[in-house]
Design brief:
The chain has 120 residues and is α/β, with parallel strands linked by helices. It has one domain: 3-Layer(aba) Sandwich (Rossmann fold). Helix content is 30%, strand content 15%. It contains 4 helices and 5 strands; from the N terminus they run αββαβαββα. The strands form 2 sheets. Strands 1-3-5 form a 3-stranded parallel β-sheet. It has a two-stranded antiparallel sheet with strand order 2-4. The longest helix is centred in the C-terminal third of the chain and has 12 residues. The radius of gyration is 13 Å and the shape is globular. It starts with 7 loop residues before the first helix and ends with a helix.
Length: 120
């Protein structure tokens, strides 16, 4: 879920699932609905307009649910920390289980975090 990012992290997530890095071989798969997800990948600082949709998306995911905060902005709001439209980091809105640092994080780091979740 993009909670207010610049889309840099989304590009790297896309690369993590490309044939080069192939995160699917470790049991991770992108799905369109939070109702089919075991984990939520959240990018960007949470903007004021996206705080409630993030809470609703988290609530829609089946238990047990995990949240992966992808990128520095998701971790601590990054360069957007003092912006008036930012509600806070992902952990300020929903519980975070794994953080992937970087601006943006490289696909290898995203795959490593997903491997930690899948145990493969």
């Amino acid at each position: 879920m993009d909670a207010g990012s610049c889309n840099g992290c989304e590009i790297e997530i896309g690369q993590a699932f490309s044939p080069v890095y192939d995160a699917e071989r470790y049991g991770a798969r992108l799905v369109a609905s939070p109702r089919h997800a075991d984990a939520l990948l959240v990018t960007g600082p949470v903007t004021r307009n996206m705080a409630e949709p993030l809470r609703r998306t988290y609530a829609a995911a089946p238990s047990p649910k995990l949240v992966v905060a992808v990128g520095d902005c998701a971790h601590n709001c990054g360069v957007f920390a003092s912006a008036h439209g930012v509600a806070g980091a992902v952990s300020d809105v929903v519980p975070v289980d794994v953080e992937v640092p970087g601006c943006p994080p490289p696909p290898e780091a995203i795959v490593a975090a997903l491997r930690g979740l899948t145990g493969r």
